[in-house]
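Entry type: protein chain
Record version: 2
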Amino acid sequence: MKRSALKYCSEVIFLVGFGAAAILFVEGQQTTPPQAIHTVEAQYSANALRGVKDAAVLVTVTIPPDGIPKDVKIAKGVRPDLDKGAIDAVQQWRFEPATRDGKPVESTITVEIKLRRVQ
């Protein structure tokens, strides 16, 4: 099987504050967003990437105090096969949870997983 000359990589951007369970930043409270401490890149077959130039999948994920993602959903997809790869990757991530006044709290974030061509 011949591989395509194009190479792809994923780039992850965290967008904090989307979703119904997002942390509200209230004056007088010390609030910090969740931090990814272990990430896994989305895996795609050469066929899945065929015809894709630049694309991004937005994944909404709830981070409970234990840091293990739950309720991982597509907020904005590209194609079902690319969306599935993004969900499968984010489900394997681990987080330092958000905190409010020094105590871990549940939060919901949106993660953007970009696929882009590498020259």
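Comment: The helical segments are 46-49, 80-90.
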